[in-house]
Amino acid sequence: MTTSAKMQIGELAERAGVSHRTIHYYERIGLLAPAQREGTGYRYYDEISLKRLEKIAALKHLGLSLDEIASVIELYFTDGTGLKGKEKVLLILQDQLAKADAQLSELAAFKSDLEANIERMETLIKLARQV
Fold first, then answer.
1. Mind listing the pLDDT tens digit for each residue in 14-63?
2. 30 neighbors 70 (Cβ within 8 angstroms)
């Protein structure tokens, strides 16, 4: 890192639009490389750290969990084309869509059962009132 490229955590947090705590958490879970420390004990970050935080935010915006992001983030920084990362994200999104479709089907069946049960109860109540 050159001196001009170094950022302390406050500047990185501000530029990335995240909190200090988020940066520390991402370091702990391996999404972000630990900061370099100098003799002063201050943590210093570089532009790569900022790019990683921006990519994490973009992937979160797509609906990926942090575990899913952890499975793809390195691909964006080791494959210059970004193609491998995009292909893996596509598979994750397709899987999420399949799960959403299955949940919608289950909800539709549940809704249909509720409507039938409501109709049965209304009929039973009407019959009980007639007696």
1. 999 999 999 999 999 999 987 787 777 788 899 999 999 999 999 999 99
2. yes
pLDDT in tens, 50-66: 999 999 999 999 999 99
Of 102, 55, 63, 64, give the one whose Cα is nearest residue 82. Answer: 55
Give 54's Cβ-side CA count (13 Å radius): 11
C-alpha to C-alpha distances, 37 to 6, 9, 40, 43, nearest whole angstrom: 11, 11, 8, 5
Nearest to 74 by CA among 108, 109, 127, 32: 32
Please tell me the pTM assigned to this model: 0.78
Contact 63, 96 (CB under 8 A): yes
